[in-house]
Amino acid sequence: MEWERIRKRPEDCVGANLQDYQEYAGRFAWSQARALLDGLPNGGINIAFEAVDRHVLAGRGDKLALRWIGRDDQVRDFSYQALRAQTNRFANTLAARGVAKGDRVFSLLGRVPELYIAALGTLKNASVFSPLFSAFGPDPIKARMAIGNAKALVTSEAFYRRKIEPWRKELASLEHVFLTECSGSLPADTIDLSAALAQASDSFETIWTGPEDMALLHFTSGTTGRPKGVVHVHEAVVAHHITGRLALDLRSDDIFWCTADPGWVTGTSYGIISPLTNGATMIVDQAEFDAERWYRILQQQNVTVWYTAPTAIRMLMKVGTEIIRRFDLSRLRLMASVGEPLNPEAVAWSAAAFGKPFHDNWWQTETGGIMISNYRSMDVKPGSMGRPLPGVTAGIVERVEGGGLREITKPMAMGELALRPGWPSMMRGYLNEEERYRKCFVGGWYLTGDLAMRDDEGYYWFVGRADDVIKSAGHLIGPFEVESALMEHPAVAEAGVIGIPDPTAGEMVKAYVALKNGFESSEALRKELLGHARQRLGPAVAPKDIAFRQNLPKTRSGKIMRRLLKARELGLPEGDISTLESEER
Ligand code: AMP
């Protein structure tokens, strides 16, 4: 079905940072974006300095930087000045223990103030910050900390005891573990973070970092192999800042709420850095999704810009529009969405329910910041991700014989979404995986792994992933990681994992398992495997369903054909099965 274009009226655009997309994109240069930031007093650039210190030095220290709302509605406020003091304390805490420039500091925390303090304090100390999602189980945590060569970790005592302590000794690089929410008796070889912060000085001079110094390490998943450590540098802040202004229309008088968890890239680029560099006030809610609570926060906190994800929007749709009328949401100026396809129904629903649509935008861990967006001043076509950020060249490409690429210019023809590298927040590598990184680039394009189309007005339309990676509730899940955890169970001979459509989460993880000789499929074993996977991987990654199969379809070289599992699951044509091992047919 064709969805009606949502036209922007002049009054919808009053004061928008980007008034005329075409005109702005035509004159934009990245050097202008860089000039909006201060840089370190002695040259160089540092994300945390741009996010916090420069506002204090410019006399804006009293402005509210972070309002944290606890699960029990307790509120903790941090002005830019207070955030500076706390992040200085954290940087001193690291420095005093010999955690230095380039060393990796991981976090495994829920949305608590210490997470924000640790992230920014780590960057001030020129160390590398790597946030992990707190719903990960021990296996994904261990894999990522080993790849990243973690030197320090900030986590809660409860997470530590459950998810880290059992294997800590195996990770020799991990020297310092800082704990929040400590009980009376600290586990061996750990440090009480609040005591350490209390002892540390609140003054710290940001350690010098240059544009190409590593700042952030975010993990993402591919179809095969281990998770990839995506390397981002301090120069990325130029993109965090300008994309906040252009795609999210951020201004210093905004009250901004990004609902993403900082364990994923959105929660760092836009849940920490961008609102702060733009001098706004950011809201952080510790609690999980609850429609009524969310609307109450939007109203009570006078949120002006709200950035969330399709899964949450679909959950709000389920609750209906009646509830919205009970709240005064008139302060909301822009609502944006990212992370998974935003269905046109959801855009149309939001336009009717809130009087303004959700603005979809697209990017990925590797791009570090928003690349394609619906801007406040631009008409919205429900179902489209929008148009490329000024300064970013996108294209639809296809592979040609001989290994090159050809750009497809015909409107609405499907191909792979590709970008011309060169924006500041582009990844600088996959940590220690040069070959995997190199393969992302062909003929001067960066290949995103997504299939898309472009229409005659330059709007991009998402079609699907070009690979087997699963997107569930906005989280990218590598099937290989799930299969590996299942294979560790003594009953499992082989496992194939796919994403199947789910009306709320977009996709749901489903596993197919073939058992070893001597094991019988049963409901009890199915439950045991589900429990095993959940315990190892955590609820965000573990399969929600498991089906037993005698054999799994494999290529002649022994690779499980997930594509075929999916086609069979969904009753779709099986496509080219010429590589299928003969006895499997
Ligand atoms: P991640 O690296 O975890 O942020 O995941 C990035 C992937 O999420 C992209 O490559 C897309 O497959 C998907 N994605 C992100 N934003 C959108 C969007 N607006 N529409 C459709 N898919 C999206």
TrEMBL record:
Q: Which Pfam families match?
A: AMP-binding, AMP-binding_C
Record lineage: Bacteria, Pseudomonadati, Pseudomonadota, Alphaproteobacteria, Hyphomicrobiales
SUPFAM superfamilies, per database record: Acetyl-CoA synthetase-like
Q: Which GO terms describe its biological process?
A: acetyl-CoA biosynthetic process
Annotated AMP-binding enzyme C-terminal domain residues: 481-559
Enzyme Commission code: 6.2.1.1
The molecule here is called acetate--CoA ligase
- InterPro entries linked: AMP-bd_C, AMP-bd_C_sf, AMP-binding_CS, AMP-dep_synth/lig_dom, ANL_N_sf
Q: Which residues form the AMP-dependent synthetase/ligase domain?
A: 57-431
A Gene Ontology term for the protein's cellular component: cytosol
Q: Which GO terms describe its molecular function?
A: acetate-CoA ligase activity; ATP binding
**What is the scientific name of the source organism?**
Bradyrhizobium sediminis
Entry-linked NCBIfam families: PRK04319.1 (NF003313)
**What UniProt keywords are attached to this protein's entry?**
Acetylation, ATP-binding, Ligase, Nucleotide-binding
